[in-house]
Design a protein that fits this description.
Number of helices: 9
Number of strands: 5
Structural class: alpha/beta
Radius of gyration: 18 Å
Strand order of the largest sheet: 2-3-4-1-5
Number of domains: 1
Shape: globular
Largest sheet: 5 strands, parallel
Length: 221
């Protein structure tokens, strides 16, 4: 069974299309500092649930609560602070441990892929195979990377709202990364879409919001 689990996890990881530069990112490789410790702890909870032993008091209740209310997260902050690496760590863990289907996609690449499916008058082209919009809307765990870097048009705002609203309504785990703070992101992609993100990243029971700023040194430097 362990061999079958590993084989299935390998298939799902390949299908997730994680870029080679981030393919080996895990929670163990993430650089921890006093500025990133809280973000790392929250990300581990989104990925793993309560880190309690089965013998601990309240384990079953905490596990049920985590399973019943899958959590999403917005990681934002300056360039090079490890947002994408942390998002990939969440995605990898959920694929490898829970055998959930997942997908990594950069917002700019996604919108380019969707654009190729439409004519200049906005009508859809025929015979182009699978619809990338549908896959991004329905995959169990999605990393939507670099939200806010795309050029804003009414068409872009409509496409992003369609994706995020569907995932919001179906309570699908979504990890967003952005260089923009939530208020700036709202100005960029529209307040309606931003509030869907806020609601998606809010635990309905505790009211805690997973809107996490990552600060610290530029790891790329």
């Amino acid at each position: 069974m362990a061999r079958e689990h590993r084989a299935r996890a390998a298939q799902l990881l390949q299908a997730a299309r994680i870029p080679p530069h981030f393919r080996d990112c895990t929670f163990d490789t993430y650089p921890v500092s006093f500025k990133t410790a809280e973000a790392l702890a929250r990300a581990r909870f989104v990925a793993m649930g309560p880190e309690l032993d089965e013998e601990d008091e309240g384990y079953e209740e905490a596990l049920d609560r985590w399973t019943d209310l899958p959590e999403s997260m917005l990681l934002y902050g300056p360039f090079g602070t490890g947002k994408t690496g942390l998002a990939v760590s969440i995605l990898r863990h959920r694929i490898e441990s829970g055998l959930e289907d997942g997908l990594f996609v950069s917002t700019v690449d996604l919108l380019d892929a969707i654009r190729t499916r439409f004519n200049r008058d906005g009508t859809p082209k025929d015979g182009l195979g699978d619809d990338p919009l549908q896959q991004v809307k329905t995959v169990t765990v999605l990393v939507l990377d670099d939200l806010g870097t795309e050029k804003v048009t009414d068409w872009v705002q409509e496409r992003l709202f369609a994706i995020i609203n569907y995932r919001h309504d179906h309570e699908l785990v979504t990890i967003f990364t952005s260089n923009l703070a939530p208020s700036e992101l709202g100005e960029h992609i529209g307040e309606r879409t931003m509030w869907r993100i806020v609601e998606l990243c809010t635990n309905r029971r505790s009211g805690q919001r997973n809107l996490i700023k990552l600060d610290g040194p530029n790891l790329r430097a």
